[in-house]
User: What shape does this take?
Amino acid sequence: MNKEEFKAKASQTIDEVSAKINELKAKKESVQDDAKSKYEESLKDLESKKADLEAKYAELENASEEKWDEEKNAFSSASDSFKEGWNKIKSLFSIVIVLFFLASCGTSNKENDTTVEDVKEEASEEMDVSEDYAAEQWDKINAEIDEKMQKVSNEYSELNDELKVKFKNKKAELDKQKEQLLGKIKELNQAADEKKDSLKQEVNQLKTALDESLTTFQKEMADESNAKK
Assistant: This one.
């Protein structure tokens, strides 16, 4: 995914996040008193994460070429953080929306046949939005890694035999770093919620290290090739 495509997707994410928070605010008045305090606390935390996400998006928009990967990773991390906040309110929200529906039934003229199960299904679909986006993000990271590694492999294949021998071990190390990162992403996708925070940090660290190694490797190959000319 190129920069403009990532920016467009990030902008779409901001819009979706804003819409979801507005929906939560609209349903706040239907929350029973004994649950309202916890609901408002969770909503406040979610709004804070939204503000952080918007700030990261602004930094992404103005990022220089040198800072692009760093700002992109920061936005992705903020997006993951929002998802975690969303999951915290998920169970509470599911209860609230059903209670809201039941309360509405008391004053409704029952012109439609909507059931509690329909409402639960709708709530579940709404909650899945952030999870779907997170899954997309990891898929895109995988694709980005493959693209960068393929570019490096192509450049390596164009080296003369002498330079291929010289850079063989470094190329193998890059392949090893890639497999470590992909393995950690797989572990993250399968992990329980309480383990995701630490695994995300590990994923970001491994990705940053791989990006730096790829940049260094490409520069060293270019320098050696130019020196041989």
In short: Residues 1-123 form one domain.
